[in-house]
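DATA SHEET
Item: assembly model
Revision: 1
Owner: S.N.
Input lines:
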Amino acid sequence: MTITAGIDIGTGAVKTVLFDSDGGENGKWLERRSDRIRRRDPQQLAESGFDDMLSAQSLSRDDVAYVATTGEGENVSFRTGHFYSMTTHARGAVYLMGEIGAVLDIGALHGRAIRIDNRGKVLSYKMTSQCASGSGQFLENIARYLGVAVDEIGELSKQAQEPEKVSGICAVLAETDVINMVSRGITTSDILKGIHLSMAGRLVKLVKSIKADQKVLMTGGLALDEGLVAAMKEEMVEQKVDIEVANHPDSMFAGAIGAALWGSFRHEKLAALDQLAQAS
Amino acid sequence: MSIDKQKEQGVQKEDSMWRQKEMINANYASLASAHENGRKIAATFVPGNLNELLMCFDLDRSLPETNALQNGMRKKSGRMIMDAERAGHSEDVCTYVKADLGMMQKGVGPTGDPLPKPDVLLLSYTGCFTFMKWFELVRDEYDCETTMLHVPYQADGKITKSMRDYVVKQLKEDVIPTLERVSGVKFDIDRLRGYLKESAKAEDDLVWVLQSAKNKPSPIDAYFGGVYYIGPIFTAFRGTPEATAYYNVLRQEIEQRIAQGQGPVTPEGDMGAERYRLITEGPPNWTSFRDFWKMFYDEGAVVVASTYTKVGGVYDLGFRHNSDEPLETLADYCLGCYTNLSLPKRVDMLVDYANEYEADGLLINSIKSCNSFSAGQLLMMREFEARTGKPAAFIETDLVDPRYFSAANVKNRIESYFQMVEQRRTQAA
Amino acid sequence: MSATEIIERCQALFDDLDFTAVKDWKAKNPGGKAIGYMPIYVPREIIHAAGMLPVGILGGGDQLEVIHGDAYYQSYICRIPRSTIELGVTGRLDCMDGMMFPSICDVIRNLSGMWQLMFEGKYVRYFDVPQNYEDGVGGSFYIHELKILRDDLSELAGRKITDADINNSIAVYNENRCAVADLYDYRAVKPWQASGSDVYLLIRAGMVLPVEEHTQLIREYLAAIEYEDRPVRDNCRVVVNGTFCEQPPLGLIKSIEMAGCYIVDDDFMLVTRWLLDDVATDGDPLKNLSEAFLHHSAATSAKYEPRKEDKGQFLIETVRQRGAEGVIFAAPSFCDPALLDRPMLQKALGKANIPYTAFKYAENSGQMQPIREQAGTFADSIKLWSV
Amino acid sequence: MQTFIGIDLGSTTTKAVVMDENCNVLGRGITNSRSNYDVAAEVAKQEALVNARFNLFRQSLGDVDVDASVMENFIQRLELNFRLHQYLLQLEDLRQTCLGNAASERFRDLGNKLIEALDEVFDRLRTDAPAMFVPGAKRKSDFFRDIAGAQYMAIGEEVAKTSDVAFDHILNAYDRSIIEVENRIIGDEKNAELLNQAVKEAFGTLSELQSSAASVDKMAQEVLGRELEETYVVGTGYGRARLPFSKDHIRSEILCHGLGAHVMYPNTKTVLDIGGQDTKAIQVDPAGIVTNFQMNDRCAAGCGRYLGYIADEMNVGLHELGPIAMQSTRKVRINSTCTVFAGAELRDRLALGEAREDILAGLHRAIILRAMSILSRSGGIEDEFTFTGGVANNEAAVKALKELIHENYGDLQINIDPESIYTGALGGATFARRAVEA
């Protein structure tokens, strides 16, 4: 058995996991943690989080065969190797849910639809374009403006009667859209739902463009926003996409999990190469 | 809704309008049944549209830009564009192309009649790079026989012998043989001559109509109204007696309006007092065509000359199809289309229009899709202002992409522009 | 010079937005004239035959502050014409005695007209090329275009340009084509030695240096690089396509390699690799140049493909020859040729089971994170799954 | 007396200018546009009218035989006292609203904890209030939302540490109350009342005045009593369409900015206005009539809000950005001015080890670069040049602008009025005056 760590540095939070697996197969999940960055240095957060996890398992750094980073973790000093987000989310998603055709990774500033095969290989992908009012960041800004706590968004959004979509492509102009809605007396619920629907609209468009044909698993920071999940389901119907959008309580860890598993896989492969080298 | 029904309901339109609507619907109906009736379909573009030549081979004519704009006006284009983008076409490229590909996926035309795939693509590569890739894409998707007619660019503002020879040679050695093979009809140059004679008649009337805007008040809107007037000649009807008849009726209607000192007809009836006379550069937006037009006639603004009504031929500068040299005249026609002119030449046209039509200023509607038009328009605007001393306004919209028409922005610009013109006038007085 | 020193020199030429190299050449060649040309192809042989210096104008990169250039273009038009105009209005192109605008797309086409209006008195030539590939049709049109160019330039040079002059220049450029080909072949074999950015900078130097000097420089590099000992990385091999006009920032080329991809072929600055074989150096030079253009030139999105079944075959051939594992489509935002063509090329690659990925850039793109993300995922998917 | 009022309804702030029949500016008022334009317009107007009274006090100075410096001192106190009362009034409103919300379903399981925490927060807010309104005191901003907000965060965080209520809850109580509160208009009578109170207190604080109290009070009462007739009101700005005005009371912001700049600096040829979400370049003729204009739309890159996002991202006040950037020693080129991704760009750069002040300087230059090309598009810059809008108060932006103008257009007169944020409203007021003349 090999112990590997996966560290996923995102825009909003650092996710870290510890796994015990053989070459990435039948992995056993030892530890997990997620630290919101809140203007702190992600590098340090990652390091302290990592060490805390080890001590929780009474392990030392030497016990870890491979420390794999993903997300914005390319320059984490103590990493063994780095895998790119879509590679890791795909692998993590398969670990979490098995039979899926695609991953929809929704972060604070990006949305990515990734089509994968049953082993988690990335077949194709599509990202939201740079200037997008559909970003999670935008949703948070608006929520604060409306006096809504992040954990309320989903519930409120579900209560919407007649949601109105935000038209603007530029988030700043979209913000003004929202202010205008408030001034026209549109309810908070309808506004939030409207934003969820606009986001979902874009995301479903992504899902369609990669021609996903099987269950889609939502991962990333916003995967657990019930309001968005609900909106996604509606938009799938609206845009006539007949596949299930699933989500998983641990889906925010998908990137970190994938990194840990790939780390293990890589570790064994390299070990094998070494033996070859020594043999010859 | 059927035309008769609309007529019963007293929808505001002149006779010429009804005629044109009937011609267009008839053409779509004919395209729908072409294959059952053993007719072949040719697709070709508006600039460099060789309608007379295609008729010589009994081919039905389908014009992709027209299909796209018809879909735009019927608010169908948005979805088609998204379908095309989902199929992998970039959000950055021309929305005519995407609307067309989106439509072909469904195989249904703007009127709801089926639109069969064309049997031959006449790629007259005239004044627009995108045309070339557009038909490569259609060919790639639908395996249509394709014949390329490369029309050189008038970079120095003149048509040279070498250019003309090149185009004529392509017609003789490539285009005509291909059309003969596809249609099974032998080429008959006298038949071509006949159609060309017919074209010239209609062209005379069209020019008269467009120039009637020199009257005050102008009896026509040469942009929002103009796009209807150019319909038949720029599309599948040039060279047909129907087209000639249409322009005849149109001319009479306008002679009448002039006699009665009337302004243009708008979708809401006669326009009020003429307050601003404008020149426009660039195509209109189709998805919000009515709202866009309303922003003008509500303010008493009438367009007296536009470059867009010259994309299918700059007839008012003297060109006529000439049956004495049939192939050469087709070459000159292609080489002379507005978007094939050099930028300096385009500026000259705008300046001349401003003077001849006594316009208050220039409005440039810059189209995201159309770099052939749009690239350089901001310089054209400067040159225009410098040479005429008249103010210009600049707005950005798109042809058939509803996502790219921001009514609030456009209105704000146009409002400010009119208020500016007004202010300068009172100042001058 | 060591390979590193050679690349440092190229980098300096690349960073210099004032075309000092051109000014130096003019100082050394009193009365000598310089002709700027934009992507993707002009027959530099004729300019050379006129005793002039052909200078590639490839926009302003990511270090030029574009102020006036932006004022001439809407948000939905690519960057290269903006920065080129900026170079013009800030006087950086005053050392050019003429500008050539090849027919590549409507934006560059219209730029030729803008140049006529903005820089009166300068020689401006829109260089049209045939989209019909019959010698008797497109060929005779093209030869006529070449004649005009030759006559214009001899007038500008104040001396007749003879066939012998042109044949001689063709020979010189055959040399250069050969050196460039050797460089690309070398990189395809040892991409860890000749990195993507090295090769880019070397070719880029050829945009401002006299051709003879450039050929020499490449030869020196090929000799010197053998002595370098650069680490072999666990990268996959890709062909980069779509970069034939507006150039990617150097950071993007480096990011692609950082993310785990060796670039083993590309379409940067195609003018140097447009004609695929040597051009005959005897007989009628214009006829020879025309035949080379019609029958032995690279396929690109700016050209018409007469036969449907040939679409994308040139790219597929390149992938096979170079032993590449995939294609990265990197195109400038709002680039009509590259972006309209892409779906057809991708379809062709799909049929040939060649994996590909695609993204857009601008010559002044700042954020490389998304680029690394995509190139990296592509590299991962090839590396982790290759058994 | 007759007054003429211009109201500039901007995307982030709403400004009002009150003018007398001789086109003298009597008063200026500003407020954040919030989510209710009518309220914003009303509040801005009231602020301007209150401000007008203070100026009327100044004008009437001559009428009383008291040393001018003492009088100026008096008026300053007067104004500060007024502001303090206004603040306390709204603070109390906020407190009640917060407590109301704290009692709601959502915080049920917190029991009284939150209420107690809030009580402590507001007590401390109240105690700290007077210190913000003494002569020479610096305030983060003049909007209740900002002043109270900033204070609330700071104190709230401390309270959260001591009590066992999460900061998020305290913060949320504020977030859900502030909109209600800031949408309640104080009203003319209430303002008059506060003014009266402020006058009395001003006497109390200034012993030098006792002797001539009578004459001063007479003057004060006269000014307070003077009726300001709203003769003609003109609305302009981004939100003008939403104002409850008839068409002839509405002017395009382009014309208003052009005219306003002309009124401030009659030799102005070129005007640049960088507002919250748009940038305008305007050319005017010697009569202040617009001859050409360009503005950005569909993308707010490089506008005022951009700096707002950056300030949030760096957790500093908007007004602190300039000073920090001024410390820059190295040039950093930044090409993207997309507001939303500004944060990402900032993190990227910091990760690359670049210095905060250098990045900020780069960001400021990037904004001005965009403005420069919009200017260039409108026909370039001609002497004299006038820079207006909120960003004109940012020294780093001004520095970058001056450099770039020098590099591209040489030496020319650059006008920046500290009150330039009122340019549109000033133009509006001038149109209002002209409307009545005509």
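QC remark: The two ends of chain C are 42 Å apart (CA to CA).
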